[in-house]
Amino acid sequence: MNNSLMAARFTVAYGCVLIAALLPIVCAAIAKWGQFNKPRREGGYDNGDPRAWLARQTDWRARANAAQANSFEALPFFIGAVIIAHLLGANQARLDVLALLFIVLRVLYIMMYVAGIPTVRSAVWTLALLVNIGILFIGYR
Questions:
Q1: Cα separation of 84 and 137, whole Å?
Q2: HEC per residue, 72-139
Q3: 123 falls within a domain
Q4: Residue 42: what pLDDT?
């Protein structure tokens, strides 16, 4: 059997992929927070038509829903960058640190989005993108 396949392991960077995949779900939960027990006729969460319900939300709930969409948008590039870095034989410790930094920045991004702090949110988004680009090229020789 191929030695590289035998040596494969679940790295911190791969764990960060799992966390990144869960962040959109966290954003959706934030948007829906406190609305499950409220009757639909009073604006409570509508599990029968959740997308339309989310589309009608305003203020921080709408921003949490937008953060959910952006978290889904950022996910494919992050997954690809981590996999490519592994395939290129990137230094594992550096890759793990960058992947963790990406997650920290994405959590900060979500916090800034929900809080309605757009300038800081955009700066954090840019930093996370640059970190993701760094992940992509960390194994380049």
A1: 8
A2: HHHHHHHHHHHHHHHHCCCCHHHHHHHHHHHHHHHHHHHHHHHHCCHHHHHHHHHHHHHHHHHHHHCC
A3: yes
A4: 80
Terminal CA-to-CA distance of the chain, rounded, Å?
26
DSSP state of 38: S
CA distance 32 to 65: 9
Q: How many domains does the chain have?
A: 1
pLDDT band with cut points at 50, 70 and 90 for residue 41: confident
Instruction: Identify the domain containing residue 118 by its residue range.
Output: 11-30+60-137
- Identify the CATH number of the domain in which residue 21 sits: 1.20.120.550
